[in-house]
Amino acid sequence: MRSLVNVIVLFPKQEVARSIRNLLVRSGFEVTAVCATGAQVVQRMEGVEEGLVVCGYKCSDMIYSELREYLSEEVKMLLIASRQYLDDCVYPNVIGLSMPLKGYELVEKTREIVTEISEKQRRRKQRPKQRTREEVRFLEEVKELLMQNNQITESEAHAYIQQRSMNSGVGLIEMAKMIKESLTYQN
């Protein structure tokens, strides 16, 4: 179940943090860091859009709600706390697990969250990249050149660029640049 999801464990007591990390690792998760302070988590998650922080209600420098505000909206938090604290939790992307903690509940909830994040990443990668206006204009220009030089239709010119791009493993815009250079060189 190895994933590309950043999982960070945050507990002020290192023996608790290590126990949770060990349980998650034995269950197939990749824990990228074990931290004792919220500041360490913020530093580790800097520039990270998505991930999971497994933490308690309070660490030495902040409580979970303060940490939540420092993280990207897409970072999820698995808060392990007493029922009393969980009842007051109203933050988006904070999922609660009540104490006393049962190992199988932690593993299952972590699996749910990591699967959700992984699925979101997969869908985002499958979405076609939006082209800038300049890129669209450039593609149109190269298609025009191909149409003029080879007496072909616009759809044939597009298919030609696309096929060359796929065959060479180069992006469409990069291939269009290469085609334009070769056409310019020929003329």
Summarize this structure briefly.
The chain has 187 residues and is an alpha/beta fold. It has helices at 14-26, 38-44, 64-70, 83-87, 103-126, 133-150, 154-168, 172-186, and strands at residues 7-10, 31-35, 51-56, 75-81, 94-98.
Task: Explain what the structure shows.
The protein has 187 residues and is of the alpha/beta class. 56% of the residues lie in helices and 14% in strands. It contains eight helices and five strands. It has helices spanning 14-26, 38-44, 64-70, 83-87, 103-126, 133-150, 154-168, 172-186, and strands at 7-10, 31-35, 51-56, 75-81, 94-98. Strands 2-1-3-4-5 form a five-stranded parallel sheet, with helices on both faces. Strand 1, helix 1 (14-26) and strand 2 form a beta-alpha-beta unit. Helix 6 (133-150) crosses helix 7 (154-168), helix 6 crosses helix 8 (172-186) and helix 7 packs across helix 8 (172-186). The longest helix has 24 residues, at 103-126. The chain is elongated and about 75 Å long. 24% of the residues are buried.
